[in-house]
Amino acid sequence: MGSSVGRRRKRYKKIQLLRPPRRLPTIFECPNCGARMLSVELDKKQKNDRGEILAKVKCGHCGLYTEMWVPQIFQAVDVYSKFLDAYLEGTIEYKILKAEESTSSQALEELMAASKTTIEGEEEEGTEGGKTS
Ligand SMILES: [Zn+2]
């Protein structure tokens, strides 16, 4: 009894297509690996001298990551097309982050925060035999 040594909570990786409410799509197809897991994040807190904001592009599949300065009016889709052009022309520097657990769990948390989905829902523990007719 009580053999819960080093027991860790494991989150099951449920891949769900979450649609962020009232937001333009921020997930695109990755030109590097082809997976539709390329996310674009606009960090409006970071501005440069020209009033541009920092856009972060990262792929949740192959780990491609890059940052670029874009005009404030840019939406994620604009960033993506600009990134795609630069990528295809080879005029952009990017790095491949190794897919580590921390990265994926962070992405998961972001997703969860965005959708406010409760994963720890009350699961019925298979007590379905209480019904008699
Ligand atoms: Zn990729």
List the keywords.
single chain; alpha+beta; five-stranded antiparallel β-sheet; 21% strand; globular; binds zinc ion
Description:
By secondary structure, the protein is α+β, with helices and mostly antiparallel strands. The chain has a domain at 27-112. It is built from two helices and five strands. It has helices at 76-89, 101-115, and strands at residues 27-28, 38-47, 53-59, 64-70, 95-96. A five-stranded antiparallel beta sheet has the order 1-2-3-4-5, with helices on one face. The mean pLDDT is 80. Bound molecules: zinc ion. Zinc ion (ZN) is lined by residues 30, 32-33, 35, 59, 61-62, 64.
List the helices and strands and how they pair.
Elements: E1 27-28, E2 38-47, E3 53-59, E4 64-70, H1 76-89, E5 95-96, H2 101-115
Antiparallel strand pairs: 1-2, 2-3, 3-4, 4-5
Bound molecules: zinc ion.
Zinc ion binds next to loops.
Brief rundown of the structure:
This protein is an alpha+beta fold and 133 residues long. It has helices at residues 76-89, 101-115; strands at residues 27-28, 38-47, 53-59, 64-70, 95-96. It has a five-stranded antiparallel sheet, covered by helices on one side.
So what's the overall shape?
Answer: globular
Structural class: alpha+beta
What's the rounded overall pLDDT mean? 80
Q: How do the SSEs run, as a string of H and E? A: EEEEHEH
Number of strands: 5
Portion in beta strands: 15-25%
Report strand order across the widest sheet: 1-2-3-4-5
Radius of gyration: 20 Å
Largest sheet: 5 strands, antiparallel
